[in-house]
Design brief:
By secondary structure, this protein is mainly beta. It contains 5 helices and 32 strands. The chain has a 7-stranded mixed beta sheet with strand order 12-13-14-16-18-20-21. Strands 25, 26, 27 and 30 form a 4-stranded antiparallel beta sheet that branches. It has a 4-stranded antiparallel beta sheet with strand order 29-28-31-32, with no helix packed on it. The protein starts with a helix and ends with a strand. About 20% of the residues are buried.
């Protein structure tokens, strides 16, 4: 053991290792560069302590941090030596200038904050943007309104249980009277947003005084059929003279609605779409002349007369037999027509008779039947029919034929008869 100890203490060549400098931080000291032997760990050159640097806050570039709703604020200083080191000082907030929003422009509200750090006062400012006013609403009477794309739409408040469709919702359907001191709630928005179109929804029954008076740049007005009253001054007078006005009812209904009012002379376009019934024949068509029938709108009751196409000439009769007409008997305003059927004593004749449905009777004031006056059809089981509603002391030409529901037979011969005086 003594020999080993002596050997270790014998002189040797050092293996020099450099100990790098350790930089100080804001709060911790550092060390200068040094050396030691990696073999025997002997310190070859000593290391000195470098004092801690301390914080160096950037007082020229503080950052403000604002709390919820800008009710609180604090200023933050960042250390130049280490950006993770910060100093936070609470500030005092006071509200500043308020600019109210409009329907076309956002508003704003400013907040000012002050804080003191190292006897120096720091100030911060934050601006809160106030959104534009919503161009929509619901009146106390339950009338809804909204403005979008230059159109003011006014209607009945939507029922919350009807998936947004218009419903009564227990509200009135009248736009009430307004005045200059109590204007319509949509007036300011309509003027500011430059509304050019007014759409009044179906269900509104009245347009009251000054409902839309004051909205001057109107190019189009659309009105519902449900209206029962429109105030003379409900619209801007200049708009009524220049705007395109559409009405969902008929022009007859418009005339009744505006009778005796200033609107009675306003030009209106009816957008009502008629739903016509099948009509009733007033003049049956023939193979040589068109007929006439009257159609009635099932919605508004309006009537119109339309032509009925001529009947196709019987080139290939579907019924091969023809009834034989007898000389008619005339009264003052009616004619009794009689005929005889063909005999059904063969199988072929019986087959033809089975297919026949009715006997058609036709009368005209000319023998070529260009002016057909009456057309009637009677059961094939009968051998006479009566034409009524004819003129007195008038000559008529009568003819008959069979029909099987698909076509006709040829016409019988023609009989001439004159009604009595």
């Amino acid at each position: 053991e003594e020999e080993t100890s002596v050997i270790e203490k014998l002189p040797h060549s050092h293996i020099v290792v450099t100990d790098p400098q350790v930089d100080p931080t804001c709060t911790e000291t550092g060390l200068t560069e040094g050396t030691h032997c990696s073999k025997c760990n002997e310190i070859l050159s000593g290391r000195d302590i470098i004092p801690a640097a301390g914080h160096d806050y950037d007082l020229e570039n503080p950052v403000w941090n604002w709390g919820e709703n800008f009710q609180t604020a604090s200023v933050i200083f960042t250390c130049r030596n280490n950006p993770d080191h910060k100093e936070t000082i609470s500030g005092m907030v006071t509200p500043g200038v308020v600019e109210s929003p409009s329907y076309a422009k956002t508003g704003k509200k400013t907040y000012n904050a002050t804080a003191v750090y190292k006897n120096q006062e720091y100030k911060g400012e934050m601006t809160e943007t106030i959104p534009v006013l919503a161009p929509a609403g619901i009146t106390q009477e339950g009338i809804s309104w909204r403005i979008a794309d230059g159109t003011l739409t006014v209607g009945v408040q939507a029922d919350s249980h009807s998936s947004g469709e218009v419903g009564s919702h227990g509200t009135d359907t009248m736009i009430r009277d307004y005045t200059s001191s109590d204007p319509a709630p949509w007036l300011d928005a309509a003027i500011e947003l430059g509304v050019s179109k007014i759409f009044v929804s179906e269900g509104i029954t009245k347009i009251g005084d000054h409902s839309f008076d004051g909205i001057t740049a109107i190019e189009e007005i659309i009105l519902p059929r449900s209206l029962t009253e429109i105030a003379d001054n409900g619209f801007e007078e200049t708009s009524l003279g220049t705007a395109k006005i559409s009405y969902a009812g008929t022009l007859t209904e418009w005339s009744a609605l505006t009778d005796g009012t200033a609107l009675s002379k306003v030009e209106v376009i009816s957008t009502h779409v008629h739903t016509w019934d099948n009509g009733s024949i007033v003049q049956p068509p023939t193979t040589t002349a068109e007929g006439l029938k009257i159609l009635t709108c099932t919605d508004c009751g309006e009537k119109k007369t339309v032509q009925v196409p001529m009947l196709a000439a019987v080139k290939n009769p579907t019924v091969k037999k023809v009834p034989s007409i007898k000389t008619p008997a005339a009264a003052k305003t009616s004619i009794t027509v009689k005929w005889t059927h063909f005999k059904t004593n063969t199988a072929a004749a019986k087959k033809i008779w089975k297919g026949i449905k009715k006997v058609q009777i036709q009368c005209s004031t000319d023998k070529k039947f260009k002016k057909v006056v009456k057309t009637a059809a009677v059961s094939k089981s009968k051998t006479k029919g009566v034409l009524k509603g004819l003129k007195k002391n008038t000559t008529y030409y009568i003819r008959i034929r069979y029909t099987d529901g698909k076509g006709f037979s040829k016409w019988s011969g023609t009989k001439k008869v004159k009604t009595r005086k």
